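Z., the sequence and structure:
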Amino acid sequence: MNFKKIHHIAIICSDYNKSKDFYVNKLGLDIKQEIYREERDSFKLDLALNGEYIIELFSFPKAPARPSYPEAQGLRHLAFEVEDIGEAVKELNQKGIEAEEIRIDPYTHKRFTFFEDPDGLPLELYEI
């Protein structure tokens, strides 16, 4: 394999408008493309961070719920790098998003914390 990078992460949400608002207006990701696929009754929203395509946000009618706490099997979480975790947490709080207490990784000695998207998907802030 000659992988170059991760191309994107796909997320299926339960409430498209709520999740779109969260990722675009609260987290500040940019919309690259939004399409409605009538045959699937599904939206697909392509989102970018700093110009780089990273997330496909999908809506599907009656999608089953999935356990998504960080210790569940499967994808553990999606992490965003930040320069100042204290400022990032303050900004989340100002937007009505609560984060856990900031912790320090015992191996890297870097600071990190978790918060959730509207469907409870664990998201991490990791200070670089």
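The chain has a mean pLDDT of 90. Strands lie at 9-13, 30-37, 42-49, 52-59, 78-82, 103-104, 111-116, 122-127.

Let me know what you think.
H.
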